[in-house]
Amino acid sequence: MKSFPVHVSSEFPSLNKKNIFLSGDALFTFPPSFAQGASQSIETANDIFKSIFSGTNEFYQERIRSISSINNKSKLNHFTFHLSNPINIFIRNKILKYLSKNKKFLENYLGKIYRA
Ligand SMILES: Cc1cc2nc3c(=O)[nH]c(=O)nc-3n(C[C@H](O)[C@H](O)[C@H](O)COP(=O)(O)OP(=O)(O)OC[C@H]3O[C@@H](n4cnc5c(N)ncnc54)[C@H](O)[C@@H]3O)c2cc1C
Question: What are all long-range contacts of 28-31, with beta carbons under 8 Å and residues at least 24 apart?
Fold first, then answer.
């Protein structure tokens, strides 16, 4: 038996230097259940570039807000994917079957992330 612990962040690291930007897992490590870590790393790097180029911190701060929202969804996915009670699993699957075809839900849950 082998164990592969997955590190997740509980908060953002605080750096007291204005000219240092963190990206990727160094900035924030999500639970892998929403499959957003690598894409957020790339989008953060792009926002860092725009922040440096424009001389403001605006894009970087906006990305940090998105990361917080994505983290909440990652944690919710993590919880629902790891249910073990058969009754809960049955109910979850019924709900997912309905939600995965509901355009309003998909737009609200995923749309904001893919357009961010
Ligand atoms: C199980 C799992 C599944 C995932 N699935 C997805 C997915 O489907 N989609 C998605 O978007 N994301 C996914 N992710 C998240 C994604 O893999 C990470 O968010 C992403 O790789 C982070 O990129 P990074 O460049 O910040 O860090 P890393 O990819 O970890 O790169 C850091 C690099 O630095 C090197 N390094 C460390 N210390 C030193 C040192 N002292 N000197 C030199 N080099 C060093 C490391 O060897 C490593 O190569 C998943 C993560 C896990 C754990």
Answer: 28/67, 28/71, 30/70, 30/71, 30/74, 31/6, 31/74, 31/75, 31/77, 31/78
Ligand 1 atom nearest the C-alpha of 39 is: 11
Confidence of residue 114 (pLDDT cuts 50, 70, 90): low
Q: Which atom, in ligand 1's list, is nearest to the CA of 37?
A: 19
Q: Is 75 in the pocket of ligand 1 (CB under 6 A)?
A: no
pLDDT tens-digit profile of 37-63? 999 999 999 999 999 999 888 888 888
- Which residue puts its alpha carbon closest to atom 4 of ligand 1? 32
The verdict on 57 and 111 lying in the same domain is no
Question: Do 70 and 100 fall into the same domain?
Answer: no
